Amino acid sequence: MPALLLQHPFMSASALAECNGQAMVAAMLAFELALADVQEARGALPEGASGQMRRLLEAHAFDLEAIAAGIASGGNAAIPFVKQARAALPAELKRYFHQGATSQDVVDSALMLLLRPRLAALDALLQRCRAAALPLMRAHGETVMVGRTLMQQALPITFGVKVAHWAIGLEQARRRLAGVELPVQFGGAVGVHSGLEEPGGDNRGLDFMDAIAQRLGLAVPVLPWHTDRQPIHALGTALDAAAGAAEKLALDVALLTQTEVGEVAEPSAPGMGESSSMPHKRNPVRCALIRGAARQVHGHTTVLLNAAAQPLERGLGEWHAEWAPLIDSALLLEGALEQAAVLLEGLEVNPEAMKRNLAVTGGGIMAEPVAKLLAPTLGPDAAKRISAEAAETARLQGVPYAEALAAHAEVQGNLTDDALARVTDPSLYLGSSRAQVARAADWLMAI
């Protein structure tokens, strides 16, 4: 697969540099050395054994290609990795390496270690989005624009409330991700720490598991979770929720950048959004990258959801199917949020275009409040008919809606010029838009 051209552009370049095969090997080694440290501290390894392992293995050049080739026969990266590590140790230490562990302990714990810095990076990006959205929504708390339903003009809102909804979605996703735990995995062959009994008969597996988690900075699970994939389910769906929030932002911005709408534009940059053949175009490329990444995350999440129920004490393909979608989801989301942060920080807003689009119907967008005002005098059915007829007249004849209303025979004598002016003013029919901006700002700042 030509990943450099087809996959990597949707991902974070810095994350890709940090989350590679060498990083996976380092994470697997970190788990094994933490296991050895804990076991030595509790008398299960000879004194000095873990330190000697650390010195030898941290200096050892693992052969990534050989590990990759070994996955075809072993089924996962831990098996060839453990073989290489043991081969690098002297005979007296070989039997103590990987003691009481199984390959799933190594792979699951290593994935959690790989994802920990990615979650920190995602949190920082989401905070950056929040920081950019707050001043944008406040600056446009009074900027009136068309609210659209089913892609059609509906009623007026403010641009500030639209930004507030973007910001709330992203911040909800951030708080959800912040609550996701990355637990250590340590259960041994069938998840019950077989062979780790003390001379007196007590099994030390749970104690080892808790101590490994503390040493690695991972969460302590209640029990080993070999086929209890709730941690993966929680993480995968939290990543997907953040992708959905970013995609919502990108979709709205892309729709508002359409030539005929022109209410916002992506931040300009040399060559950004250019067409291969049409020099006049300024394509919403950042929005496309965000949506492309998000769509891939949604697909990966489906794989994770379908792997949630795993058989007996070890998954047969379900566990294996999780690895790439989980890591790819984090890398794709990080790439999407990098674009989202730049988008919010430099979004170009065109209030004049918003004002122009409010007038596209000649003011007919205000037919609902007009009908409400006429209903007590003329009845609801007549009021709705008259407001619609005036809106159609305004659209066809290109006259202001207030003028079409004033000329309507059934309106004459029922509304004053002042009442007509007020009822057809979009800035006076904004519902709770202003209050929503204020409330959203308070919530966003309550960190």
TrEMBL record:
InterPro entries: AdenyloSucc_lyase_C (IPR019468), Fumarase/histidase_N (IPR024083), Fumarate_lyase_fam (IPR000362), Fumarate_lyase_N (IPR022761), L-Aspartase-like (IPR008948). Residues 362-441 form the Adenylosuccinate lyase C-terminal domain. Keywords: Lyase. GO terms for molecular function: lyase activity. Pfam families: Lyase_1. Gene3D superfamilies: Fumarase/aspartase (C-terminal domain), Fumarase/aspartase (Central domain), Fumarase/aspartase (N-terminal domain). Belongs to the class-II fumarase/aspartase family. This is Adenylosuccinate lyase family protein. It comes from Halomonas mongoliensis.
